[in-house]
Amino acid sequence: xxxxxxxxxxxxxxxxxxxxxxxxxxxxxxxxxxxxxxxxxxxxxxxxxxxxxxxxxxxxxxxxxxxxxxxxxxxxxxxxxxxxxxxxxxxxxxxxxxxxxxxxxxxxxxxxxxxxxxxxxxxxxxxxxxxxxxxxxxxxxxxxxxxxxxxxxxxxxxxxxxxxxxxxxxxxxxxxxxxxxxxxxxxxxxxxxxxxxxxxxxxxxxxxxxxxxxxxxxxxxxxxxxxxxxxxxxxxxxxxxxxxxxxxxxxxxxxxxxxxxxxxxxxxxxxxxxxxxxxxxxxxxxxxxxxxxxxxxxxxxxxxxxxxxxxxxxxxxxxxxxxxxxxxxxxxxxxxxxxxxxxxxxxxxxxxxxxxxxxxxxxxxxxxxxxxxxxxxxxxxxxxxxxxxxxxxxxxxxxxxxxxxxxxxxxx
Length: 412
Ligand SMILES: Nc1ncnc2c1ncn2[C@@H]1O[C@H](COP(=O)(O)OP(=O)(O)OP(=O)(O)O)[C@@H](O)[C@H]1O
Ligand SMILES: [Mg+2]
What we know:
Layout: E1 3-11, E2 15-24, E3 27-37, E4 42-43, E5 46-47, H1 50-68, E6 74-79, E7 85-94, H2 102-114, E8 122-134, E9 137-140, E10 150-161, H3 162-174, E11 178-184, H4 185-193, H5 196-201, E12 203-208, E13 213-219, E14 222-229, H6 233-243, H7 248-258, E15 271-274, E16 283-286, H8 287-312, E17 322-325, H9 334-342, E18 346-348, E19 355-356, H10 358-361, H11 367-392, H12 396-410
Parallel strand pairs: 1-6, 3-19, 6-11, 12-17, 17-18
Antiparallel strand pairs: 1-2, 2-3, 4-5, 7-10, 8-9, 8-10, 12-13, 13-14, 15-16
Helix pairs in contact: 1-3, 2-12, 4-11, 6-7, 6-8, 8-9, 11-12
The structure holds adenosine-5'-triphosphate and magnesium ion.
Adenosine-5'-triphosphate binds at residues 12-15, 45, 80, 209-212, 232-234, 237, 252, 255-256, 259, 326-328, 330-331, 365.
């Protein structure tokens, strides 16, 4: 029996979450999880304090190790933040001997990459091939061996600020861990919560986190558009603290206990108690006041999301609707508000894992952590397949196959 560990480390604005996946006889189970508050180590998805972040990573990883009864040495981690940019690009080449070879696949993908200028302070983190076209025929996923004259490819290229990536690697290394790979949080989140049908038909994935809300549009089984909006749960907590004149801690507790959108308020006028600041007496307010503050911020955020979906354009209709995840997706009434504002059917996305700690996984805040495990698993399966191929196809042609197969693995 073969056994292998794959660990996802989600370094979020409010919490670090380590998820341990165990592959036994090709079956992936989630066998451990650990979380620790980030406690100011990140702001809006970006590391702003190395030591605090390192401590949170160590704590989350130790907890996950204890639960899984294992030692964690390397992790797949995610990146988010307003510095992330997604570009759709297009490459064209002439097929030399009228039959597509792996070399031509590499060339056409390179030509699409060259169309996007990447400044020296940024790095490409994903080159996601959406489809190939041969002599105008679209929808081709694997063109090798097909006859034609003109080979085109459509790719989605995701770039990130080098400094932000370096800081993630630095924190992870300082916590004693190697980084096996870094992925866009919105992309891996999709691996955890979306069904194949949704990804094929077209779906908008919205990860309502603490510091950022990540939008990823999938269609035709590929990522078509991505955006990171630096407004999320922390802004709501802040609004509550300011609006109701209470501390951030009390505001957070009030939000979790009584917070909801206006559409989720019952008919009865409920009142809630607000702890006073600096020893002042507590006050009673109508729960509606709290809901109004939350509703206002979420409506504004959904307005920004609607603009992004509009920017993605009619080429990528989201026929399957929207899927919401992240800790803030637990706010009662958000699903309905998304439906009403974006005019799309919506559902909450829970991590779709088959075995292991399914109870722990029934929380949309763990979607990115689970997604990182699934992403790591897919990459490892892909590289195992390409080394088998390399074995069969000796020499440089074999190595090329390995690289080409890597793009196919990136096609989600
Ligand atoms: N039951 C709940 N009701 C309302 N909000 C909640 C609830 N549980 C968690 N949240 C909010 O979810 C947010 C954290 O979500 P999540 O854990 O997905 O964020 P993160 O991954 O740490 O941050 P990010 O992805 O933005 O970097 C916080 O703002 C928190 O207040
Ligand atoms: Mg998150």
